Amino acid sequence: MIEYVIMIFLAISVTFNMLGSIALHRFPDVYTRLHGATKCTTFGTIFATFAVILHAIVRLKETGNPKYLQMALHSAVALLALLLTNPVGAHAIAKASHMSGYLPKRAVVDAYLEKRREKRNE
Question: What does DSSP assign to residue 117?
């Protein structure tokens, strides 16, 4: 039964990562590509990590070997690091892109551009 749950987690992970790859290829500018790729790969990695943690817990109960506890803890720490760094990295890339002059296509509101114009007028 638990193997099916692990397989479902892995299938969800593969699906999200595949959607992120498609978003990277199909979306029109750097901001939408960054958005699609970051969200999908984050969710994909979350479910892959859940699968690893669940597998490690099951193997720990079966064998009693502490290396599976270590594997689960390392996976949890990696997941936490991913959740903290992935949005920050995406934001930094988007801001650097905007400051380099790559403006979003079809944007209704561009707060960075308005701020830059206000600074020039001051």
Answer: H
Model confidence pLDDT, tens digit, residues 39-63: 988 999 999 999 999 999 999 999 9
In the chain, the largest separation of any two C-alpha atoms, in whole Å, equals 69
CA torsion sign for 28, 84, 76, 71 is positive
pTM: 0.80
Distance CA 100, CA 97 (A): 5
- The pairs formed by 51-59 with CB atoms below 8 angstroms and a separation of 24 or more are 51/6, 51/9, 51/10, 51/13, 54/2, 54/5, 54/6, 54/9, 55/6, 58/2
